[in-house]
Structure formats: C-alpha cells, structure tokens
Amino acid sequence: MAREKNVLMPSLRRVLNELGENIRLARLRRKFSSAIVAQRAGISRNTLRAIEQGKPSVTFGAYATVLFCLGLEKDLKLVAKDDELGRKLQDAGLSIKARAPRINRLLKKQEV
Question: What's the rounded Cα separation, in Å, for the pair 52 and 45?
C-alpha cells in the first residue's frame, strides 16, 4: 500500500527550504564535508542532502541531530518561544478545552 503524501502549504515549503539552506551554509562555514556531518549525525549522505534541501519527509530528530553536530542545537529552544497568538488568546480569557470531544458522543447526539 502506498504511503499518503503530505501536502505542504507554499509558505511552509519556503520555511523548510530556508532552514535547509541555513543548515547547508552553517556546514560550509565550518568547512565540514557532507560525509563528516552525516557520519557524526549517524545518518546517510542522502539524508543530509534531503535535510539541506528542506525535504519534509526527513524526521525532526534527524534535523535536530545535524544541528547538534554543527553546534546549533540551542537554536531549537527558540522555536515557538514567543507565541504571540497564544498569548493574545490567553489574555482574551477564551476557554480552551483540554481535549476534543469524543466522536462516539457526537455520533449519538446526531442519531437522536
């Protein structure tokens, strides 16, 4: 059975491409070959190439490991650090449910 392909919004695609390019430039600035970074990260050179191209099929862990090998793991702490929208929702006092309603309950309500 074929795996379902994720469809990315163009803006997210651009972000991933930029992330991959930034990782590639960081590697080149350090004068590391792709073979050395791939070996240190425990991934194949093809996976590193996919990371540097911003491919969404590569696991987040592989991205994080490459960032660690380049000494950039602290940059991960900056992700979602300033959640402006979340803060505005919190300040507005909107109630947020802990979890979504169960499907069974919704179906029973529709049947009645």
Answer: 10
Token pair for 58: 């590569």
Ramachandran angles phi, psi of 8, nearest 5°: -100, 145
Token pair, residue 41, equals 């990260």
Q: 29-87: per-residue pLDDT in tens?
A: 999 999 999 999 999 999 999 999 999 999 999 999 999 999 999 988 888 788 888 88
Is 41:66 a contact under the CB 8 Å cutoff? yes
**Rounded-to-integer distance, Cα 101 and Cα 103, Å:** 6
* Nearest alpha-carbon partner for 20 in 46, 41, 50, 43: 50
